[in-house]
Write a structure and sequence with these properties.
406 residues; single chain; globular; GTPase activator activity; Cyclin A, domain 1; Rab-GAP-TBC_dom; 61% helix; Rab-GAP TBC domain-containing protein; three-stranded antiparallel β-sheet
């Protein structure tokens, strides 16, 4: 057993202090879904081929063994062939284990999503248009003395809501709230992965993909009035949508909007408390989650924790709020994010604890740099996390699971 405060020997290896070369702009912009690059070693290619074969064999079974699938996926899902798309749907519970039920389940869910679109996007627009027309006619028929309690009363006794009514049940109040929310969603969607032609630009594909993100986020907000839309949700949804829209199966790709919506709902169910401002200071809110990260670092590397939080007063809220709420989508390029999510989604206990271990590993890998800095430079470093080897990062995170104390 190590002495309290001792530095774990397995982390002393220069491997963890090494800095990976920064990716080129091209490699950061678009993850490759083709065969492994020629620069990969023969052993890496063989490993990818082996995992590809094992995953494909598992997905071909009449009933998928989720325990085995999680184990394989946690080691990394090879890009290409639509494997990641199918595996993620299984890991998130969107697809059942029974392979023969997949088509039926997908048809049911996709039909349900189309019903949501009709109810929350098309029908809602028609209702607002009807109310606008009705109110316009009413205003012409009444005089100022007819305005009673925020409503307009016609001569025939019919009451029409005043457009400036602030009542909670007012269609107008709801309309203006929804308009503000939709404007925020539009702004965020247009800023999603600005370096990727898949999401940004004037191409029909990019505009269609933006529209899909917009639709899914609006529907989510309408179905979850207690939470609605919170900035950053677009980044999480975009990761799912990219994987599903890139599926080589044309039918699956065409239904990426519906599939990503339901998987987004499943994924966010484990993190929604982090987005609820009313719960910020509760035992399940974001402050509690940040405190768990602090305690995890203190347990595994008390010296680093002391330098950060005691000596320099750099608490997790200065850097880890975004790490946790956006599931690291803003700290790494999309290709690396996909590999991190392979591990997050593979945890049978859910991704929350694994996410904290990855965040803790990020601090440990930057240990030497952090120890050489003061408050301002530490915050700057962690808010713009340096390039790192994702395989090393995930290895360290896994070691933290196996090393309960330091």
């Amino acid at each position: 057993m190590q002495k309290k405060g001792a530095w774990a020997e397995w982390l002393s290896d220069s491997l963890w202090a090494s800095v990976s070369p920064r990716r080129s702009a091209a490699s950061e912009a678009e993850p490759s879904f083709g065969p492994p690059p020629s620069s990969s070693s023969a052993s890496e290619r063989e490993s990818d081929i082996s995992r590809h074969s094992l995953l494909f064999a598992q997905l071909s079974k009449k009933e998928v063994d989720l325990d085995e699938l999680r184990k394989l996926a946690s080691e990394g899902i090879p890009d290409g062939a639509g494997i990641r798309s199918t595996v993620w749907k299984l890991l998130l519970g969107y697809l059942p284990r029974d392979r023969q039920s997949w088509n039926e389940e997908l048809e049911k869910r996709r039909a349900q999503y189309m019903a949501f679109k009709d109810e929350f996007l098309l029908a809602n627009t028609s209702e607002v248009s009807r109310r606008v027309e009705e109110a316009s006619k009413c205003v012409k028929e009444v005089i100022e003395n007819d305005i009673n309690g925020g409503s307009l009363e016609r001569g025939n006794g019919a009451v029409v809501e005043h457009p400036l009514s602030l009542g909670q049940s007012s269609i107008w109040n709801q309309f203006f709230q929804d308009s503000e929310m939709v404007e925020q969603i539009d702004r965020d969607v247009k800023r999603t992965h600005p370096d990727m032609n898949f999401f940004c630009g004037d191409s029909s594909d990019a505009m269609s993909n933006q529209e899909s993100l917009r639709n899914a986020l609006i529907i989510f907000a309408k179905l979850n009035p207690g939470l609605r839309y919170v900035q950053g949700m677009n980044e999480i949804l975009a990761t799912l949508f990219y994987v599903f829209r890139s599926d080589p199966d044309d039918t699956n790709a065409a239904w990426a909007e519906a599939d990503s919506f339901f998987c987004f709902v499943e994924l966010l169910s484990g993190f929604r408390d982090n987005f609820c401002q009313k719960l910020d200071n509760s035992a399940v809110g974001i402050r509690s989650t940040l405190n768990k990260l602090s305690q995890l670092l203190k347990m595994h590397d008390p010296d680093l924790w002391h330098h950060l939080e005691v000596k320099n007063e750099v608490n997790p809220q200065f850097y880890a709020f975004r790490w946790i709420t956006l599931l690291l989508t803003h700290e790494f390029n999309l290709a690396d994010t996909l590999h991190i999510w392979d591990v997050l989604l593979s945890d049978p206990q859910g991704p929350q604890e694994t996410l904290l271990r990855v965040c803790c590993a990020m601090l440990i890998l930057a240990r030497k740099r952090i120890l050489a800095r003061d408050f301002a430079s530490i915050v700057k470093l962690l808010q713009d996390y340096p390039p790192t080897n994702i395989s090393h990062l995930l290895y360290v995170a896994n070691k933290l699971r196996a090393q309960p104390s330091a």
